[in-house]
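Supplementary Data S3. Sequence and structure tokens for construct A.
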Amino acid sequence: MSVSQQPSSAGTSTRKLCVVMAQLDFLVGDIQGNTQAVIEAAQKAHNEHGADILVFPELCLTGYPPEDLLLRPSLELRVSEALETLRGANLKPAIVIGAPVRQGGLLYNSAVVIEGGEISGRYFKKFPPNYQVFDEKRYFAEGRETLVMPIHGVQVGITVCEDLWSDGPVEDAAAAGAQLILNLNASPYDIDKQASRKALLERKSRENRVSIVYVNLVGGQDELIFDGGSMVFDHSGRLDVEAPQFVEGLFPVEFLCEHPCQPVSQPLPDEPSLEANVYNALVLGVRDYVNKNGFKSVVLGLSGGIDSAVTLAVAVDALGPERVRAVMMPFRYTSSMSLEDAEAEAVALGVQYDVFSIEPMYDAFMASLEKPFEGTTPDTTEENLQARLRGVLLMSLSNKFGSLVLTTGNKSEMAVGYSTLYGDMAGGFDVLKDVPKTLVFRLARYRNTLSSVIPERVITRPPSAELAPDQKDEDSLPGYDVLDQILNLYVERDFSADAIVAEGFDRTDVERVIRLVDINEYKRRQAPIGVRITERGFGKDRRYPITNGWRIGK
């Protein structure tokens, strides 16, 4: 069933329309604060841009994803109060906002249109997604109706996020006479996502001969990053307007509306490199996680290795050097090179830097364990003790000074369990959790193009945990060039062992890596969350049982 209202007699003549894309960062659960942000944005859009229509992201009143907050009994009351506040705010533009709305006993992911103090339209999302990081069917019913309505004399169709990726909603709105389609989004970032969005929007606008305004959320929410990148495609499938990624703002677009509406083209931003794009995502993820959760500062262990070097740079770029503390915790196996490089990084980035040897604590622990360890030979137990002592030091600084501990493990290490529970895994947020080791090297080189903060030999030396004499990561693992390819096929693309071998990889390497991934699920469940940058990160994306009898093979 379609809901379509006929335009006024003036709707057939050329009409200018100013649509402002509100690419903003909302805080999940802060309905009152989000409502105030909508009001302030509407006032600014009117005063500075003469906005006719102001379009916000999906579920902006609650923030996205609200998860089980949607099950709270008071949610409906709070959202209703927010909508009443917006109705009474005397907003000049028509606003299109995202909110959960209950009707007929069912909850819908909705777009709400408010004009002149009245709710003039509601649209219920037709395709709540239930894959990867999404589980909207846990909360939302499926909408059934199409909404095309006149706003400032222009027939406007409205859809929400996943409706764009499915067949039906855009087509139905175009068939119902939409001159322009507004699409509200909370689309999470991954490395290839913006290119996929552009390809989809090009096809949908061209096939349906209608301009589409795509407005996306920006900001970090736990492990998810919303990158903005709001866009406008015209009816021929041409990209006419693109807002920058990872930046908040109000982005106006002028339309000349007959049928369909034609956007006035604007200069497009330069295409960022993959490294720049990922680095910006990490910076935004750290900034929002730290600030939204009320931490004053962060602290991390600085080892002289590449992972902690990149983590330190991201933290400083996210928060400023005055809010970052780096701690070197050397032991007898720590090389002079590591000590020198860690200090050089701290000085280059201007952070507080401390050196606390773990040698006395290690000796004390080993003295206490002398009797139960009698007759045994040193093994990974003693190596892991070093990592755990460092974790205790960092967590103590965290408790005393209210600093969030940033862990520094990368995706390659997290995948195969090359990490120590309650040691280098101790902390609150893992910046590189979804960044493969080979990409960490590329990020280090990219960051040095902005300013030289990571010594060259940190990038070129063989990676080592330095928990034993002359230790190198590749003594325990395949080379990272090979390891990361196998992990990509197994973790992100769900290839079986046989299928990976068929791609040309050594069966012994493949089966060894897969076994390490499978048996270390228990570690990942206890690891801090971290920024998601790939199509399938550890966390919301990949939910495997710890206890299982699945066998490697087909």
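Construct B, processed identically:
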Amino acid sequence: MKSSFQFRERGFALLEVLIAVVVLATGLLALTALQGALTRASADSKARSQVAAYAASEMDRIRRDGIVADKSATAAGTDDISLAAKAGGLSGLIQTACDITYSADTSGNFTTADTDCARNPPASGAVAYFFRNTLTLSWTDATGGSRALSVSSDISPLALTSNNVLVNRPPPGALGLRPIVRRENPVTEGMIPIATGGEDSEQTAATNPKPKLLGGDDGSYVSDTRFDVLTYSSDAPTDFARFNKRIETAVVGCTCQNSTAGFTGNGPGAALRAFNLAQGYRPTYWSGTAYRTPEIATEAVSTSPADVPQSALCDICCRDHKDPTGVTGPKFSPWPGQTAAHYRVDGAGAFVVAAANETYLEACRVIRVDGVFRVSADPKIQDNALIATQVYPSTDTAGSQLAGVLNNNAATSPALSTDGKSGYVDYVYGAVARLFFDATAVAGTGNAVDYAALQASSLNVPSYVPILPTADRRWLHSRIVMTDYLESDAQQRVVTASQDCEAPASDADKAHCVLPYIPMATINTTEIATWSPRASTDADARPANLASLAAKYFNFARTVIRRFNSALALFDSINPTDASDPAVDEQLFVQLAATEPTQSVWLNTPSPNPSTARFFGNPLNPMRGYAQTSAPLSFKLSWNFPSGNPASPVSGSATGDDPTASVTNSGICSPNTSANNTTNPHTCNAPGTTGVEISLAGYNRIQYSDVKDDCAGGNAKTSKPTCVIYTFTGATVDQPNGTVAAASATVVDPAKTGKVGEIIRFTLPSLSNAVANPSTVTASFSRTTTDATPSCDASNKTVWTIPCQ
């Protein structure tokens, strides 16, 4: 009997097979599409890489050509076959370029109203501007889709270089914002911050001036002197500061040519540089908040001669720094007494007004404004002040040889003392208050300020520095207060600030009210000023406890600096008035000697030599100003008698009265124990390097010759006296760094002038302290002879009247 259940046979139904085939086909089709997409993406990536490489090279070319080059963009919508070939064979490649002009407004922010993609410089050439060049490359991909790539760069005419490129600025909407710059506290040894009184502990300080030498640190000529005037806020308790303002400054001395023929331009961008050198500008000046972009000048210009090795900044210094007759507005030389003429130095060392095409001397301050160096109106050094350096060690008072006076070791360290720095800050506040707050004519253009009184109240401590009599060194530090001439807008800003000040109770309060609006810098000039010693006179004031000491116990260390640009540039005076009325300060020294010094000048205060000194360059061995007493210095003294005279010094005298030389009050040169002192040259010892006084004696004499005695008659002979008189004509000092002339001689006893017993004295301006190559002093004379007058006495003997006895 069969069951009612039936078993299925195993296998795939036709329907199932059909479904599997459909699924497999769908997957294969998807893989085929993916493979095509990958192929297209690879081709597109390769195309974009080729376009990007071409765009980069094209932008490099645009930057290299500079601001004056025409952009070579293909018109939009045009297929350029050569362009396609450059970009790797792409077809349909189109290049377009767009230049948007950004111009600076009065606040220094850059904005644009440009819409036509053309290079449109501002109508006023004095306005800072730049072009933002956007290069766009477009093409069609393999699927017919549109592709594009853009690159941009900013190109500016602000610098006279072949590569006028600026880093891209932020988008236009953020142009009004200022970047926040933080760095380590900028104050180093020699800088003294001045608090401006702001709420965020704002301070101002000038960095130590750094002279740049042509040829690097081993160069022999100063190119220019650079420093920054910084305004910053301290981020206590960290040692970082936020920089609010930086005025980048260079002071340069130049030789200029009174025409435009000295500079022709060469190399890439020569046309632009030639144009800029032919287009002068009026000065940049302080507006009350910033230095203004200068206006275009209309007068003829001068140039920096092409064959004179000097700073590149001399191009714009020579080009711009002039105030022709009738010019209006701010001037380069605005201060009373400044001259607008340009001078050269003739063969006799005198200043002569330079004529057309002649070279002349010039000095400028150059400030970076809107990214480019501009020649500014001349600043003026208002005062020069010495500041106390440290006592080290503070407890050592040994060494004084002067009864009742201790060696307190003042100024035995080159570092500034705490009291010296705080006293200087008070002094600056007093100067600012009197120049810009109290003055009725706030411009600072001649306001009378009693700087001596300010120094006496804040800085002149100690009143004198004791110094040991031999090889003792004391350190000195000199600073200047430098301000700009304020034009009317800056004057009004300062007046408003002083009027808005709430009941200032002190000089510091007054200064804090106006400091943010005045262009003032306090600069360390220790290694730039000229140093020299000065002998004390009876007219100089002395400390009460030392009033009984003779004047020779006292010397002054003197620091001198000219008032205008040439001083900071370490350049010669540029006109007859440049060296007049320098800023001077002195420090009194007293020698702790048991006996009165033999020389009136025994202090040595050397000035740094720009060709060898590394200004503030090595913190382990800093150059600083110093004064010291020195051990006796050896030098040679040679007599230069005219030809025809007996051997010099004159020898053969039976009385041993040959010429003698001595350092006044310090002993005979080359003392000789024999009857005749015939040494030539003499060897002398001086107590110092400057102000050494020389005494010369024994050079005038009587010579005898046998002649017929007319009074006695017959063949009798008599000795005829003849006066041989030597007149001093001058002395020179030959030393390793050149030859200098000594002062004219004076006769010690006028009654002995032209006599055998005449003694003269003259002063040497300087002596080299080089041991291997000491100084040689040459004293020169002219020679005259006068015969004695004979007469007969009652015994028929000849009596001679000798005029030189």
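The chain has three domains: 13-155, 189-396+406-440+452-536+552-572, 632-642+659-667+681-703+720-789. The mean pLDDT is 77.
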